[in-house]
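Morning run. Coffee first, then this:
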Amino acid sequence: MVKQLHPEVVFQNYSNGKLTHETRGALEFRKQAEKAARMFSERNQVIKTVNAQHATLVVVIDYMGTIAQDFPDGLKAGEEIKLLGISEFTFLEGKIATIVDRS
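And here it is:
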């Protein structure tokens, strides 16, 4: 996964229009992705559409996940979440330079 990332990749996650998480650099992104993967006992992502808009690739994704552990915000282990998300990618030197996730 990290091979496709620019060494200085920037990742941002927005939920309901609010920035909830940001990483800078491929190593920091990898650590966050590994942490996020452990938060779910099961995850499934289905790509609905892919569009190029100027220099940005926009991907609409149906997402489903089963919570692996209780979350501080009240979600409980075993609960299932479903959401429609949008991921926006830009590229630099043939690698992913920014990833912006919106849900």
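Strands lie at 5-15, 18-24, 40-53, 56-67, 80-92, 95-102. Good start to the day.
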